[in-house]
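Proteins fold reproducibly. Consider a sample protein:
=====
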Amino acid sequence: MVKKLFFNEQIMAIYQNLFNKVFKSQDIKEASEQAPAILYLVYENENIVGFVSGYPTNKITFYIQYAGMLKEYRGHKTLSFFMEATNKIHGDFQRINCMIKNNNIAAIKIALTSKFIINGIKQDKLKNLFVELTREVCHG
């Protein structure tokens, strides 16, 4: 099950805690600087197992800022949880864009298996290389 939450101060603590559990290697400060417009929480039974955070870039496009699963839920379930989340996003948006660091092969494989297509690459100020991906559906 996926729940959509609009970001507010009450959600911030939940998001920061979840972000820090998923991205242990990331700087904790990074979570406190995040303020996505929308947070999609992924549940198995009553437990939060992962999230997708981001914001609309226009009325038909959602940009995934971060997505991740708690370590104990990673593995064979990751793909189905990610597809469930992106299907929920597609209920509101025709297009989903994201960028994944080029050396995160597992995440790139999950995105490609989830029908994202590579549409470019980008380098940030620190010379990190990212793969840009898009998934689009037509709402009839």
Q: What stands out?
A: The radius of gyration is 14 Å.
